[in-house]
Amino acid sequence: MRTGALVSAAAVGLALLAGCGSTPEPAAGHPTGAGDPQAVPAAAVPGGRLSSGPFTLLPTAPQGYEGVAGTAEMARHDGGTTVTVTFTGLRPDTDYVSHVHSGQCAEGGGPHFRIDPAGSEMPPNEIHLKFRSDASGAATATAENPTVVGADARAVVVHPADLMDNRVACAPLS
């Protein structure tokens, strides 16, 4: 009977460890926190001060993105900042990265917004959203950051993950 209890305890421990390892590894260069499928969308964050805008195509967009549409939403709240992007018209089954930028969309979004301008180009000093479009070219992603960002977070830009120099679309956060 004691052996059965030990085996049961070991099985429970292994099950817990297996559960801990089931989180997928982030893509190279994009740590966990660059997008969370379980996160509450920005528009639904309790007490959030919402900024949002529609995505418009940028002149740097590669061919084949003429039908891209969507919105970016940013909620500033007591727990930090939450950003949600929603798209249609992307290339199907393709990996993308969106970043919060500090410029205006008329300027292609300008540089990446950094919480500490002298700090890292990676989260948590920047807000990144990595995601994959579905078979119809639609996608939604949400990322959270523990810092309440200021007014210098002006836009969200989307890039294909494999063509980071090709900015596809920009949404102003007004």
From TrEMBL:
Residue ranges of the region described as Disordered: 26-54
Query: In the UniProt record, does the keyword Nuclease occur?
Result: no
Care to name a GO molecular-function term for this sequence? Answer: metal ion binding
Which residue positions does the secretion signal occupy? 1-27
Q: Which keywords describe this protein according to UniProt?
A: Signal
Spell out the Low complexity composition-biased ranges: 33-48
Task: Supply the InterPro entries for this chain.
Answer: SOD-like_Cu/Zn_dom_sf (IPR036423)
Could you mention a single GO BP entry for this protein? Answer: superoxide metabolic process
Sorted alphabetically, which SUPFAM superfamilies does this protein's record hold? Cu,Zn superoxide dismutase-like
Q: Which family does it belong to?
A: Belongs to the Cu-Zn superoxide dismutase family.
> What is the name listed in the Swiss-Prot or TrEMBL entry for this protein?
Superoxide dismutase family protein
Q: Which organism is it from?
A: Pseudonocardia bannensis
